[in-house]
Amino acid sequence: LEGPMPLEQLRARIDAAAPSRSPVVAVRIDGRFTDLALRSVERQSPPYRPLGEVVAHQTEWRVAAATGTLIGFRFPDATAGVEVPGYHLHFLSDDRSVGGHVMDITLVSGELAIDPCDELHVELPDGVGLGVPGAADRDEIARLEGGGPTG
After folding, report:
1. What is the three-class DSSP state of 135?
2. 36 and 91 Cβ atoms separated by less than 8 Å
3. Per-residue pLDDT at 46
4. Which residue blocks in 25-146 are alpha helix, DSSP H?
5. Chain segment 62-93, per-residue pLDDT in tens
6. pTM of the model
7. 125 part of a folded domain
């Protein structure tokens, strides 16, 4: 992949490259990136708070440029309650000095690998309840995940 390619355009490129038959897609891009906006939330323990409450206390930081790996998943709406629908991406620099949940990023250049997933295996800790599949508030998820369309 050659950029500059902002996050929304990068998501569209991944969507175009992913087989339409596979709603769950694992994504990895090794490359050079700029304008990284990353976040991390504090460690959680039972009883688990809603995502909106957790991200209200997140730590955010910006990185001008880094070489590393962008990795994550694209989940369909039907996985709401088990996973966050849309894209969930993390970044880790090659030197392991920078990493976190991606709120924004621009690809300069990189190699894209996609793994369509025909199965989704999830193990839940005791006491973790599920939401209603398909009941995702996509606007709220987009806000919490870092803006832009989630799917």
Report:
1. coil
2. yes
3. 80
4. 51-55, 138-145
5. 999 999 999 999 988 777 777 778 899 999 99
6. 0.79
7. no
Residue 144: closest CA among 36, 41, 62, 72? 41
Q: What is each CA distance from 18 to 65, 68, 108, 111, 125, in whole angstroms?
A: 27, 22, 21, 14, 31
* Residue 102 structure tokens: 């991606």
> Is-contact 67 37, C-beta < 8 A?
no
Separation CA 44–CA 57 (nearest Å): 12
List pLDDT tens digits, range 100-146: 999 999 999 999 999 998 887 878 777 766 655 555 565 666 666 66
- Cβ distance 27 to 13 under 8 Å? no
Residue with tokens 């959680």: 44
C-alpha dihedral, 106 to 109 to 113 to 116, nearest 10°: 40
What is the phi/psi pair of residue 68, to 5°? Answer: 175, -155
Q: Confirm whether 151 is domain-assigned.
A: no
User: CA–CA separation, 88 vs 85, rounded Å?
Assistant: 8
CATH number at residue 110: 3.30.1330.80
Residue type, position 103, single letter: M
Count up the domains in the chain and report the number. 1
> End-to-end CA distance of the chain, in Å?
20
Tokens for 68? 């590393």
